[in-house]
Amino acid sequence: MELSERQQKIVEIVKEKGPITGEKIAELLALTRATLRPDLTVLTMSGYLDARPRVGYYYTGKTGGQLFKDKLLKLKVKDFQSIPVVIPEAASVYDAIVSMFLEDVGTLFVTDGRNKLVGIVSRKDLLRASMGKQDLEGIPVSIIMTRMPNVTVCYPDETMLETANKLISKQIDGLPVVKQDADGKLDVIGRLTKTNITKAFVELSREDG
Ligand code: ADP
């Protein structure tokens, strides 16, 4: 976040003289307390300053970079995840292609009879399986999918930064968001893709705080 000239002055004053009351800052800048109020709100909400009742404002010592990282680490999977698209392992390659078009997704999660995650199928998996084949309805997705335990997953409380790192290091487009059951099996509760990371990125730029 770019600070305005006046906000930078306030930070300098608080750095030098804090803890200091709002009235005193206003006096030093020859402004009214009311004029200053929005700036002080912005500076406390963005983490540059902190305020203690009856003591006043003080400087937190955090740089712009640290504040940005604090904000980034607050973005969690559960706040950005999409609805998962799941197909049963007995579904055919043909069914998977139809689901991919109908649901407009690039990755399908494959589950067993108890709705537990067993694999994942991507666009390229389906293209590869379809090349030169006539009977796509006769090939089950279970034989072409990337299967457990090789599926990379994420959890609702993970940070978006952690999932972005997984997508980059594994060179994949999406992750199932999962919850582990008592037997250690995974229930699919969401979908986290590069699109969700892009949305989080845009949100970061929108926030004033
Ligand atoms: P695309 O095929 O559209 O390029 P990806 O890059 O996501 O999509 O997939 C590349 C390969 O990685 C595929 O073989 C796919 O099965 C596999 N894959 C995709 N997502 C995951 C995941 N979360 N964990 C493990 N493997 C995955």
UniProtKB/TrEMBL annotation:
Supply the alphabetized keyword list. CBS domain, Repeat, Transcription, Transcription regulation
The CBS domain is annotated at 80-136, 145-207
**Ranges for the HTH deoR-type domain?**
3-68
**InterPro entries from the UniProt entry:** CBS_dom, CBS_dom_sf, CBS_domain-containing, DeoR_HTH, HTH_11, UCP026546_HTH-CBS, WH-like_DNA-bd_sf, WH_DNA-bd_sf
* Any matching Pfam family: HTH_11
Q: Could you list the residue ranges that cross the membrane?
A: none
PANTHER family for the chain: CBS DOMAIN-CONTAINING PROTEIN CBSX2, CHLOROPLASTIC, TRANSCRIPTIONAL REPRESSOR CCPN
Name this polypeptide is given: Helix-turn-helix transcriptional regulator
